[in-house]
Every structure is written in C-alpha cells, then in structure tokens.
Amino acid sequence: MICFIVSMHNHLLSYMVLFITIYFHIYLLILIYIYQNYNLENVYVLFLILQNRIRNKRKMISHSEYCRQLNSAYNEGSVQANPYCQQIVYDSSSHTILMKTGIPSKASNSMRLDHLEFKITYSHVYQEPLLLLRIWIREHNDEFTMSKLWFPKDVKQILNIDSAFQLGLDSISSDMRQHQEAWYSFHPCDTSYMIGDKPEYLDKYLERWLSVFLFSVLL
Amino acid sequence: MDEIRNLVWNGAINVKLTVKSTLLIAGVKKERCSLNIRIPRDIYLPMYLPFMKNQVKDYLKADIDDRELFVWFEYENVPLYWNYPVGVLFDSMTSLIPSGRKRGDTSSSINMWTIELAYGPQAPSGVLPIVKGQEQIQGYWMHQWKQVCFILNGSAKQMMSLAMYDSKKFWESVIKRDRKSFEFIATKIIPAKPRHIPVVIHQSLPEMQIMQPVISAFQADQHEETFMDVLTHLLPVLFEKKGRAPIKIVCSGIEIPLEAHIYETYLRFFSFDGFLHISLCLLTANEVAIEGLEN
C-alpha cells in the first residue's frame, strides 16, 4: 500500500513537473511571439487598457475638472515654484499656462541653449492635459545676440528626457479655431496609465500630471 | 461604396513644382528647374521631397541638405501645411480663386497646380519643420491614426493591438498605393458604431482656420448628424439658411450636399490619415447664379 502511495505520489509529481514545463514553454513561446511581432510599449499600454476596462475605472480628466485644477495649481503657485521657472502667463480664457524656463542641468549641449518654452493645455481628443515644448537657442551676430526657435531631431537626447515619453513635432492650434504653431508634443494617449488612474487620484490629477510630465523634464 | 472608395484612393493632381526665383543661382531661369508630376490626393507632399530635391538641388543658391535650413512649399506665396493631404491643400487653396477652377481638363490641355519650393533658416509659422525626413512623416501619420482611433472608439486599443507587421504594412500600403491592404487594416480600426467622427474642417476665408470639432454620429433623437447640423452650429454666420454665404463643402474635390449624413460620408471619403477633411470653398459666379444665393 505504502509502495503504491509513494509510486502514485511520484507519478503525480512527475505529471506536475511535466505540466509546469509545458506551460512554461507555451508562455515563453507567446512572449517570444509578442516580442518579435509587437511594439513592446504598445503591448504594455494595451495590457493597462484591458486591465483598466476590467476594473471599469475612470481613464481621463474632464475639461471642466482640468480647468478647475489648473486654476488652483496657478493660484497656489506650484508651477511658479519650480526653480527653473523664469516667467509664467496664465490665460484663464483659453485655460492654458505658458511658461519660460531656464535650461535644466541634466540637458546636454547646454552651451547653445537659451531657454525652454512650455505650454500646458488640454487635449479634447484624449481628454487629458497636454504638455508642449519648444527650444530656443542663442545665436551670436557681430553686434548682438538673439534667440531663435530650434527644432532638433534628437530633442529627447538633448534634454535627456525619459524614454517612456512619446515626443513628436506636432501642429497645434492654441484654440479650436486659431492658427497653427509647431511644438514638440508629449503625446497624451497613455497619460492616465503613466500617472495612475485610481478614482481617489482625481482631485490631485493635474498635480500628479505636473510632477510626472513637466517637473521630470525640469530636473 | 467600393467604387467611391476606389475613386477617392486613386484621385490625383497634376502639380507643377518650381523653385522661388530668389533662391535660384543667378542666371538660372525658373523654367529650367520646374517639374511636372502627378501626385495622389491622399498623400503628404514631403513624401516626394527627396525626389524633388534631387531634381533641383544643382540650381539652388544653398545646399538644402544643410541641417540649419528648412524646406517647405508655397502656393502664391502662402506656405502650405504639409501635414494635411495634398488634395485637401489643393481644394482649400484654390477655393480662394473660384474662377480658376472653371477650366477643367480637356483633350488638348490639363490643369496644373503650380507650387513653389522654398527654404530658409526658419520655417514659416505653423508649418511643421521637417527634421527627420520620412521617419518623421511616418511617425506623424501614425499619431494621426491614434487620434482617429481614440475619436472613433474612445480608446487607442485597436491601434495599440496592431502587430508590428500590420503597422508596417499599413504605412507601406500608403507608399505603394495598395488600397486593398490599406482598407484591410483601416477596417480593424473603424468600428460599425463609432463614438465620435474624426472630421477636420478647412476654412480659407476670411482667414485660414482649421477646426477639429467633436462630432457625434447620431443626434440625441437618434437621427444621423448632417453637415448642415454641424456647420450651422459651428459657423452660424456662414451657414444660416437665411442669407447663406456663397460657400460649398468639398471633399476629395467633390461637392458634398449639406444634407448628407456625416458618418456615411466618412465611410466613403475618409482620407489616408483616417480623418474626413472638409474644405469650405467659395462658389463661382455661375454656381451662385444656379443656387440663387446672394453675396
């Protein structure tokens, strides 16, 4: 009887090991397939989207809530308090903040850089805050020095911006009907996943967003 | 519907590309470096830039491959926003001079759209500087589709779940003008019941404006939205029924009735960037007389 139990136990163990090995190989094959065929950033975001859908949680910030929180952030001085901030303009009609900053210490090639220009606005498509960036460089003439806009192709390397951000040159209208301007745009499609989308974060959504997006660039 | 899609996809414009005379080497005549090419309506203009540069670079004062120089296109000294399809730029810009549209192609002549290549140390305001060549154009196009996906479905899931092979094939279908492959992937993104419809309205007069309104497929009473519904709300001065301005809406060179349903029109006329581009064009004198509108 004991021998039978021991033998069954051994069999069970070997079956379990076999199953685990098979499952492990299947998972490995799936991971290899995903790695070869899909963009890993997209897979991660897709995983978060599905997870979010299962949990049925809020994903974005409404325009009115964004306006309220932007107004509070400006009045409390949390944006102005950043040590790199040189000048700030809050437009309460278009609900945007335009900000001139110094060059953050982590930026490379800083000799040529003059200042950065940020704009905080709202994406009606993604229903998320939107961060825009422009770089100004110094240009020396025989008689005077002037600053001009610069659109380098390797902006992320120059400002040492985290690779998690998707940054691209985009044509932006400051309002739905205004003229277009060229800005580097931090693409907002995965914003809520980057900053956390729990309902209890809603009251501090913009504050969290500022920390992750704006202040992480200004280090 | 398939027939219309085919016509939209294969629509093309005859373009005469020249270089601004101030940028040519002294003594070189403008005609010497003009190029006649036929460009699909559904494509970005700078996708032809490497070819164009190659043809004209020997006649230019400066080396346009210089990293400090920006290149752009102009129509009658107005810079063109390359980030919209060529056909949309043509419809919007030529709408400013309606009499110019009167003469169509005949058996012995064809209409040409003359545009100029320009360059300088700063791109004009609003024109996206091309700093990464074809890679930048492809990236921009992909992000347009992400926006479209978000507008239609409320999330970018359908775009994110495209395999790399499909994403690559999607872009290649635009380059190779392969409609079958393009629509195969586009239909994975466009749902049967959209949340909103991605529409861009291009207005040239009284000033250049580009609007991207939020448009639902259906009104509250479940009626499908028409262009009249949207435009009377968005531009009441131009589209009020009484005293309507002499304006028509044009998509892919075709006049669309104001009573047309937007989603049905979208499915037939959506552009290669996933948006439905609508140009507001001035009516010609003949068209005004036919429609009985007064200025």
From TrEMBL, chain A:
Biological process according to GO: autophagy; protein transport
Pfam family, one: Autophagy_act_C
InterPro entries hit by this protein: Atg3/Atg10
One GO MF term: ubiquitin-like protein transferase activity
Keyword annotations: Autophagy, Membrane, Protein transport, Transmembrane, Transmembrane helix, Transport, Ubl conjugation pathway
Membrane spanning stretches: 12-35
UniProt protein name: Uncharacterized protein
Species whose genome carries this gene: Zygotorulaspora mrakii (Zygosaccharomyces mrakii)
UniProtKB/TrEMBL annotation, chain B:
UniProt GO MF annotations: Atg8-family ligase activity
Keyword Calcium: no
Gene Ontology cellular component terms for the protein in this record: Atg12-Atg5-Atg16 complex; autophagosome; mitochondria-associated endoplasmic reticulum membrane contact site; phagophore; phagophore assembly site membrane
Keywords: Autophagy, Isopeptide bond, Membrane, Protein transport, Transport, Ubl conjugation
Annotated Autophagy protein ATG5 alpha-helical bundle region domain residues: 135-191
Domain Autophagy protein ATG5 UblA, residue spans: 8-117
Keyword Protein transport: yes
Pfam families, per database record: ATG5_HBR (PF20637), ATG5_UblA (PF20638), ATG5_UblB (PF04106)
Membrane topology: Peripheral membrane protein
Top-rank lineage group of the source organism: Eukaryota
Domain Autophagy protein ATG5 UblB, residue spans: 196-280
Role this protein plays: Involved in cytoplasm to vacuole transport (Cvt) and autophagic vesicle formation.
Family recorded in the similarity comment: Belongs to the ATG5 family.
Protein known as: Autophagy protein 5
Lineage, uppermost ranks: Eukaryota, Fungi, Dikarya, Ascomycota, Saccharomycotina
